[in-house]
Structure formats: C-alpha cells, structure tokens
Amino acid sequence: MNMRSLIILAAASGIMAAQPAFAMDPMKCDEASMMKVQAEMDAMKDDSMKMQKDEAMKHVEMAKTAMKANKNDECAMHLEEAGKAMMKKN
Q1: Which of 89, 86, 90, 88 is nearest to 39 (CA)?
Q2: Which of 14, 27, 29, 63 is a good FRET partner for 35, with 20 to 30 A between their CA atoms?
Q3: What is the pTM of this model?
Q4: Cα–Cα distance measured from residue 40 to residue 52, given in angstroms and rounded to the nearest whole number
Q5: Axis-axis angle for helices 50-68, 31-42 (nearest 10)
Q6: What residue ranges in 1-90 does DSSP mark as E strands?
Q7: Nearest to 80 by CA among 45, 41, 28
Q8: Nearest to residue 62, comparing CAs of 73, 52, 51?
C-alpha cells in the first residue's frame, strides 16, 4: 500500500468513526431510540446547526405521534429522517 492509499483509508476510517450512533444501527420505534435521537439533538448546541435541529425535531414529533398510534414502521422512518437531518451540511 502506498502512502496515498493509507491517507485515504485513514480519512475514511475517521469519517466512519465520527458518525453518530443512530447512523450505524437501523432505527426501531422504541423509547431507547427516541432517547438516543433526543440526546443527539440536545448535543447540537451550535447556532449554525439550527436548521438541521429544527428539521430533526419535526421528525421526532411525528415519530412520537406515530408511536402512540402503534404505527411502528412510520415511527422508525421518522426517527431515521431525524438522524439524516442532523447529519446534513448547511
């Protein structure tokens, strides 16, 4: 392996490690997943992330509504969308 390949491999590994926990596991419609996504949103303190946080919050609210209605697939989809919203670039 040449030096360039090692650098690319190291960068890719760093990006993978920096992904939030919710991005690695498929979302389930349960309290643990709700709490995990909520904790990730609460950690978003930077004002530059306000749009992503607002979008994620909308999806979490829709997920909670779906969970109460026992619509687990819809709930899980909204939790995943919340996760995607938090990872968006400005």
Answers
A1: 86
A2: 14
A3: 0.68
A4: 12
A5: 160
A6: none
A7: 28
A8: 73
Lookup result for tokens 């890719």:
12
What pLDDT does 89 receive?
73
34 and 79 in contact (C-beta within 8 Å)?
Answer: yes
Six-digit token pair at 45? 């303190």
* Collapsed DSSP state (helix, strand, coil) of residue 42: helix
Distance CA 26, CA 76 (A): 8
pLDDT in tens, 23-73: 445 778 999 999 999 999 999 888 888 999 999 999 999 999 999 999 999
Cα separations in angstroms, 14 against 10, 25, 70: 6, 18, 38
Task: Give the E-state strand segments of 1-66 in sequence order.
Answer: none
